[in-house]
Write a structure and sequence with these properties.
Elements (H helix, E strand, L loop, with lengths): L1 H12 L10 H15 L8 H19 L6 H9 L3 H5 L3 H6 L3 H9 L5 E5 L4 H5 L5 E6 L2 H13 L4 E5 L12 E7 L2 H4 L5 H9 L2 E9 L14 H9 L3 E6 L3 E7 L3 H4 L8
Parallel strand pairs: 1-2, 1-4, 2-3, 4-5
Antiparallel strand pairs: 5-7, 6-7
Helix pairs in contact: 1-2, 1-3, 2-3, 4-9
């Protein structure tokens, strides 16, 4: 009975268009987490209780997956017709970043990296990936990953796209030169930064490029967009970094100095 209840709630959660592309396993795990966190019994739930659970789970998943303005069929049509900028505009984070992608690609090129891991990628790979760089794209939205896979195939890019839930670091991730974590940390944790620290330490890479929004939820510019907590964390971990801003984001380019790097797997770029 419990399994049927979880499946039924999952179906209801995904009736919202912006969440329909999420993998069932991600949604079901979010539902189970809700039950555990709130100590709610799975037996004899009223319709009112079910609606509350669906509403709460949808809210949590929206924070993680972003909001989408258009359907996957339109996105597929734009990809096939080569209208890349229009395609990027169908994803809220990518749309905000459209004018900055060229700058970011130049920044990445200056690091001379040969491999990239993009966590919570959305449609970033479609704007950033290029031949000669191995690109690993992860997200919890299967529709986005399918588009990224097709883009890789259409453009002969060496890349992989796969589901990965950053709340559960239970399976290994590839070792890379650069890891992108763009506007992800603010939606992973409501309080504290233990998970963010765990992710930063878990990733085996030479560089991390982490970004945060410089706008409030209402769209107003933040008075102090810098994230003091990550600056303190990086100093404590002895990771050097530089920060820079674009119109909508503040970025931290981090150089890790962990045992993986010290072992000589990657020569430092001068």
């Amino acid at each position: 009975m419990e399994e049927e209840l979880i499946k039924s709630l999952c179906f209801s959660v995904k009736e919202k268009k912006e969440l329909s592309g999420l993998a069932n396993s991600i949604v079901q795990e979010a539902i189970i987490s809700y039950f555990d966190k709130n100590k709610v019994s799975k037996k004899d739930l009223s319709e009112k209780e079910k609606k509350l659970i669906i509403k709460e789970v949808r809210g949590n998943l929206r924070k993680m997956s972003g909001r989408f303005q258009n359907t996957s069929s339109l996105q597929q049509e734009l990809l096939e017709s080569g209208k890349i900028e229009d395609l990027l505009k169908t994803h809220s984070s990518a749309e905000e970043r459209i004018s900055d992608y060229s700058f970011l690609k130049d920044k990445i090129a200056s690091l001379h990296v040969k491999s990239i891991l993009d966590l919570g990628c959305g449609l970033n790979p479609i704007a950033i990936a290029s031949k000669g760089i191995k690109y690993y794209a992860t997200d919890i939205n299967q529709n986005d990953l399918d588009l990224v896979k097709e883009y890789f195939n259409m453009n002969n890019i060496s890349g992989e796209a796969f589901l990965y839930d950053l709340r559960n670091l239970n399976s290994p991730l590839p070792k890379v030169d650069l890891c992108l974590i763009l506007k992800v940390f603010d939606v992973l944790e409501e309080r504290g930064h233990k998970l963010a620290e765990k992710i930063i330490k878990f990733i085996q890479c030479k560089y991390l490029l982490v970004s945060f929004s410089t706008k409030t939820l209402s769209g107003k510019p933040m008075n102090h967009p810098q994230r003091g907590w990550i600056e303190q964390l990086l100093k404590r971990l002895n990771y050097s970094y530089e920060s820079f801003k674009t119109k909508n984001e503040i970025f931290y380019l981090i150089k890790k100095t962990n045992s993986f790097l010290d072992a000589g797997n990657y020569p430092l770029v001068s």
